[in-house]
Amino acid sequence: MINLRGMGWPVVLATVFLTPLSGGNLARASVINFDDGTAGTPVGDFYASLGVHFSNALFSDNFGLPGSDGPLAIKIESRDDFQVPSTSPIVITFDSGQSQVGITGIDVGDQGFRIDAYDAVSGGTLIGFDQAFGTDLGVGEFFVVSVSTPSIRRVELYQPSFIDDGDGIIMDDLTFTPATPGVPEPSTLIVSLLSVATVGLGAWRHRSRRRFA
């Protein structure tokens, strides 16, 4: 318990405002594990209540492959062989800007797995990417690809070294963290509050000297 008695209002002000900042991040990540869907049906707006929308994605059995959890994952909708070329990626859009988006690629071989992040739900600018490569057909290999940058509105998922040979991938466990535009970084906020407290403390001392002069 912090004892504020006798500290003076500037110190009290700084203490009250700074104490909550020690509590952790301003925003927390959400996770979609896809286990609440139905295999073989489009994902589409299934998660619209979370502000997340999918294009070219189907709920899929995850076949118990390493890196998956629960019964389901997602796969490409426009092909039957699970391959995801860059010309036909799985696309995920967000109703609001995200500061981090990541997803697990399962059974990733030498064709790789890549995430591209954009600042608009269509078009826009590529603002970040991540990719990973397995070996050969990628049996038992899985990787998390993740992008952390402000204002992510869309991500595209595909195999960057695509060869049309039937070596596909599935995906599981989408994570996303909302951005908090307009909220200053904790370090900036601390400096600002300390400045206010310092000015206030000077004024308080000045009044105290006049009171007891």
Structural account:
The strands form two sheets. Strands 1, 2, 5, 6, 7, 8 and 9 form a seven-stranded antiparallel beta sheet that branches. The protein has a two-stranded antiparallel ribbon with strand order 3-4. The relative contact order is 0.21. It contains two helices and nine strands; from the N terminus they run αβββββββββα. It is globular. Strand 6 (113-118) and strand 7 (126-132) form a beta hairpin. By secondary structure, the protein is of the alpha+beta class. It folds into two domains: 9-22 and 184-212; 27-178, Sandwich (Jelly Rolls).
Strand fraction: 25-35%
> What is the number of helical segments per DSSP (H or I, 4+ residues)?
2
Characterize the biggest β-sheet: 7 strands, antiparallel
- How does the overall form come out from the CA principal axes? globular
CATH fold name of the largest domain, please? Jelly Rolls
What is the arithmetic mean of pLDDT?
83
Structural class: alpha+beta
The domain count comes to 2
Name of the level-1 CATH class of the largest domain: Mainly Beta
CATH architectural type of the largest domain: Sandwich
State the order of secondary-structure elements, H for helix, E for strand: HEEEEEEEEEH
Radius of gyration: 25 Å
For the secondary structure, the number of strands is 9
> End-to-end span in angstroms?
35 Å
Model regions low in confidence, pLDDT < 50 over at least 5 residues? 1-25, 183-194
The helix content, as a percent range, equals: 10-25%
Summarize it.
With 213 residues, the chain is α+β, with helices and mostly antiparallel strands. It contains two helices and nine strands; from the N terminus they run H-E-E-E-E-E-E-E-E-E-H. Helix 1 runs antiparallel to helix 2.
